[in-house]
Write a structure and sequence with these properties.
The structure holds two protein chains of two kinds. By secondary structure, chain A is mainly β. Chain A is built from one helix and nine strands, in the order αβββββββββ. Chain A has one helix spanning 3-28; strands spanning 39-54, 60-61, 68-80, 83-95, 101-117, 120-135, 138-154, 159-172, 186-200. In chain A, a hairpin with a 5-residue loop joins strand 4 and strand 5 (101-117). By secondary structure, chain B is mainly beta. Chain B has helices at 2-13, 26-31, 399-404, and strands at 19-20, 38-39, 50-54, 59-63, 68-72, 79-81, 91-97, 114-119, 122-126, 133-135, 142-151, 158-166, 175-181, 190-194, 212-217, 230-234, 237-241, 296-300, 303-308, 319-324, 336-340, 350-357, 362-368, 380-384, 413-420, 425-431, 436-440, 450-451. In chain B, strand 22 (350-357) and strand 23 (362-368) form a beta hairpin. Chain B is globular and about 50 Å long. Chain B starts with a helix and ends with a strand. The chains are: A mainly beta, B mainly beta. The interface between A and B is large, with 51 and 45 residues. Strand 7 of chain A pairs antiparallel with strand 1 of chain B.
Chain lengths: 201, 452
């Protein structure tokens, strides 16, 4: 078999393999669970990078935390084919300089827009809510914003797999006169990169 | 639509401020948390001579001629830490300067922001808790101690420090120059060197004899001053000083300064007062005695208080004296007697004393020793002076019974510190060779002293 024939056969083979799932998807997505009224359940896990703490004046300081880990679950409802709203629950843990663990549990309401380019979809959204933060014997209840951007491969009408990247912005703001001095007010910046699986139903 | 309403409601909820239990922020604490080289390690036989609090660094520091320990507000144990530039250095002293105006509910909200340490003959400072920088003394002397300047009308917060230096190593109290660190949080300045001289001493040689033991700034001017004066207490004399940049006598900035001794050491006071003389009422503890606070000098409620010990082996002498603002001047201080014979109500000689403001009153804490070396059995007790006018109670209040009921009464006292504890005071008592103890004010008569 000469080179040209081999190349032609290889290309034909790859095109065949490549188009088979597309063909299958094209068939399956005719029953797509991504339309108004449908739901999606996302499970994510991955590392969390503690980035920095800053004051309201813009002075940044180190977090003194190790790389952390996070696990999250989101439940969304499709308002139309490309927009869904819902809620998310996450948990993260990272370790401080003296081996004490920082726990953060954000609970957010989320709005997500899906950009689609089949077989891929690119969800972009934002969540707002609050986080329970615990370190040593201190517990805090902090306003939180978590924007998200992801890239998913739609394996079928029910399952998608992909990656998300989310910066976590957690506000620890204290008013003068409280038990915690106002000068301790900080904004915490974290970032996660997670593997995600979405079940559409 | 309902979901959108809920979304916006939750977003609106997010503008609320954080709620945290505790006395410091979680992120702020992590930002300055220091790695401790070993958890715990504060021995029950440690000596603790210095206790300081830095609120921005979220914790307390103690030392006693051994290691430097720190404890965060929420921590349960003291952790040993080191100066990165000199990890094997013996830590002799720790203190704080600088001011944070972030009040925690107390009337006086001036907490130290910069932490200073004398370690291995070098002065170090940190503002971050993680980076320590060595400080140069312009005269090249060796620092050996840090004396807090108790500020203001309540004498509680210390935002300025005196660096005591040593010229020759043949005597603990063979000091010469001192330096003064002011209260700027962002750029503290080390003024000096200064030396204490009497008016007849132009060489500064007498500075060798007069190590500073205690210092206070009244926070208020007197009839004869334009700035609030400092009062230093050294052996045999009380010194009145205008500060590093204010001229009294012949002071000049950043050079050898003459701080004229008052004549209080031999002053004749008002007709009802006692003449304080060095022979009968020594204004310094004897060499070898642990206290640097008693004799001490304190300012509260418009009165300057002087506490003196008595000579070891004697049964009389020493006392507690007060001088009102009208009696303060640049040339002499007239003291009235509050208590004579420098002993507590049970007759034990006072070996340690410190004035502490507890948000409502000034309390005078004294520790006593029964033996001639002031290291025997004794008490820590306090007497409230609510009037500020020198009417110390002659009998200790009920807290002394808690103290004497513990083993603590056998130990010599090296330091005493009141920490704000969310509405009530947490007192730390550093002993010599018997560790650190604490007492929670909120329990009052039922809380015992507990070893930390």
């Amino acid at each position: 078999m000469n080179r040209l024939s081999f190349a032609t056969l290889s290309i034909a083979l790859w095109i065949g393999i490549g188009t088979f799932p597309l063909a299958a998807q094209a068939t399956e997505l005719s029953y797509d669970h991504r339309v108004q009224g449908d739901r999606s359940l996302t499970i994510q896990m991955g590392p969390v990078i503690p980035l920095a703490f800053s004051t309201w004046a813009g002075q940044f300081g180190a977090t003194n935390l190790t790389l952390g880990g996070t696990l999250g679950i989101d439940l969304d409802f499709y308002m139309d084919d490309t927009f869904r709203v819902g809620g998310g629950l996450r948990g993260m843990a990272a370790v401080g300089p003296n081996d004490n663990t920082l726990f953060i549990v954000p609970i957010t309401l989320r709005a997500t827009w899906e950009l689609r380019m089949y077989p891929f979809s690119f969800p972009v959204g934002v969540g707002a809510g609050f986080s329970f933060t615990n370190y040593e014997s201190k517990t805090s209840f902090d306003p939180t914003i978590i924007p998200t951007a992801g890239a998913y491969w739609n394996m079928s009408s029910s399952w998608s797999f992909g990656l998300d990247a989310s910066p976590w912005i957690i506000f620890q703001d204290y008013l003068p006169g409280g038990s915690v001095p106002a000068s301790d007010s900080r904004i915490g910046f974290f970032s996660d990169i997670t593997l995600g699986a979405i079940y559409h139903f | 639509m309902r979901l959108w309403n809920t979304f916006f409601a939750l977003a609106a909820l997010s503008v609320l401020v954080s709620c945290t239990n505790g006395s410091s922020g979680i992120f702020a604490g992590l930002e300055v948390e220091q790695k401790v080289t070993s958890t715990g390690g504060l021995s029950t036989t440690a000596s603790v001579t210095h206790i300081a609090e830095s609120r921005p660094l979220s914790g307390y520091y103690i030392t006693g001629g051994q290691s430097l320990f720190l404890k965060g507000y929420s921590a349960s144990v003291w952790g040993r830490t080191t100066i990165p530039a000199n990890t094997s250095a013996t830590i002799y002293a720790v203190g704080t300067t600088g001011v944070t105006t972030s009040g925690d509910g107390e009337t006086d909200s001036a907490y130290g922001t910069n932490v200073w340490v004398v370690a291995g003959g070098v002065l170090y400072m940190t503002t971050t808790g993680t980076t320590w920088t060595a400080q140069t003394l312009s005269g090249g002397e060796t620092p050996i101690d840090l004396i807090p300047v108790r500020m203001g009308s309540d004498g509680y917060s210390t935002t300025e420090l005196i660096v005591v230096t040593q010229v020759a190593m043949n005597s603990l109290y063979n000091t010469n120059h001192f330096y003064f660190i002011n209260d700027s949080a962002t750029a503290p300045t080390i003024y000096g060197p200064f030396v204490l001289q009497t008016s007849s001493d132009t060489t500064g040689a007498n500075g060798l004899t007069y190590p500073i033991l205690s210092a206070v700034n009244t926070g208020a001017t007197t009839s004869s001053t334009t700035t609030a004066p400092y009062y230093f207490m050294s052996a045999n004399y009380i010194w009145a000083w205008g500060g590093p940049t204010t001229a009294w006598g012949t002071e000049t900035t950043n050079s050898t300064v003459t701080a004229y001794a008052t004549t209080a050491a031999t002053a004749s006071a008002s007709s009802s007062a006692t003449t304080i003389t060095a022979a009968v009422h020594p204004v310094a503890v004897s060499v070898g005695t642990p206290s640097t606070d008693f004799g001490g000098i304190f300012y509260y409620g418009g009165y300057l208080y002087l506490g003196t010990t008595r000579h070891a082996g004697t049964t009389t002498g020493g006392g507690i004296y007060s001088a009102g603002s009208s009696a303060l001047s640049t040339s002499s201080i007239s003291f009235s007697t509050i208590k004579t014979n420098a002993e507590n109500s049970s007759g034990y000689p006072i070996s340690f004393g410190q004035w502490i403001y507890n948000d409502t009153n000034g309390d005078f804490w004294i520790a006593t020793g029964a033996s001639t070396t002031y290291e025997g059995t004794g008490y820590v007790e306090f007497s409230q002076d609510g009037s500020g006018g020198g009417s110390l109670a002659t009998t200790p209040n009920t807290n002394s019974s808690n103290y004497t009921s513990s083993l603590l009464y056998e130990y010599a006292v090296g330091s005493l510190f009141r920490a704000y504890n969310g509405g009530s005071g947490l007192y730390y008592l550093g002993t010599l060779a018997h560790g650190l103890w604490y007492w929670n004010e909120s329990g009052n008569s039922t809380n015992p002293w507990t070893q930390d």
